[in-house]
Amino acid sequence: MESGAVAVTALAHADGWDAAYRLHAGDLVRYLRRLSPNAEIAEELMQETFARAMRASRSPAASHELRPWLYRIATNVAIDRLRRDRRLRFIPFGGRELALERDVAEIDLVRHALRAIAPEQATALVLRLHEGFSPAEIAQMLDVSETALKSRLVRGRRAFIAAYERIGGRL
């Protein structure tokens, strides 16, 4: 039996997915929270990530490949949601609520700025700067060349800074 078939069999077993969930769900929610307007949506996206992973016909052959594979699925789920939300976005009714703490306001500004830039750039930035993946790992997750990824990171940083300053953030 080849190693890929072993991995599929191991993960297909309920205990394998339970272990993967326990090991990675928290990190995935934190990652998705950076790309989501609220914690509930991040939780939904994480659940959708695992649902898609469990429906996949193939899974990583080696255990060290599982985390990047799940992040790739989560990234695709988040980009799909960001694109759908942009198509359905309405002008907000009221003014923005004032945050009671500076940190909360800052986090909201960062999240808002991330949602204002291209989803491909936002996910590349979050994977690199917040999740600590290497450029090679991110390029593989996003199925792009390292050169294309580096371009996304550069453009993403510039777009993020512009969006952040536009909404009132100060660097």
Describe the structure.
The protein has helices at 3-12, 14-34, 39-55, 66-88, 102-116, 119-130, 135-142, 146-166. The protein is mainly alpha-helical and 171 residues long. It has two domains: 1-89, Rna Polymerase Sigma Factor, Chain: A (Orthogonal Bundle), CATH 1.10.1740; 100-171, Arc Repressor Mutant, subunit A (Orthogonal Bundle). The protein is globular. Mean pLDDT is 81; it is low at 1-10 and 88-101.
> How much of the polypeptide forms β-strand, as a percent range?
under 5%
Low-confidence stretches: 1-10, 88-101
State the CATH topology of the largest domain: Rna Polymerase Sigma Factor, Chain: A
* CATH second-level architecture of the largest domain: Orthogonal Bundle
Structural class: mainly alpha
Return the string of H and E elements: HHHHHHHH
Oligomer kind: single chain
Q: Output the radius of gyration.
A: 17 Å
What integer is the average pLDDT?
Answer: 81
**Total number of helical segments?**
8
The coarse silhouette is globular
Q: Main β-sheet: number of strands, strand sense, barrel status?
A: none
Beta strand count = 0
Number of domains: 2
Quick recap of the structure?
The chain has 171 residues and is mainly α. It has helices at residues 3-12, 14-34, 39-55, 66-88, 102-116, 119-130, 135-142, 146-166.
Topology:
Blueprint lengths: L2 H10 L1 H21 L4 H17 L10 H23 L13 H15 L2 H12 L4 H8 L3 H21 L5
Helix pairs in contact: 2-3, 2-4, 3-4, 4-6, 4-7, 5-8, 6-8, 7-8
List keywords for this structure.
Rna Polymerase Sigma Factor, Chain: A; single chain; mainly alpha; 171 residues; disordered N terminus
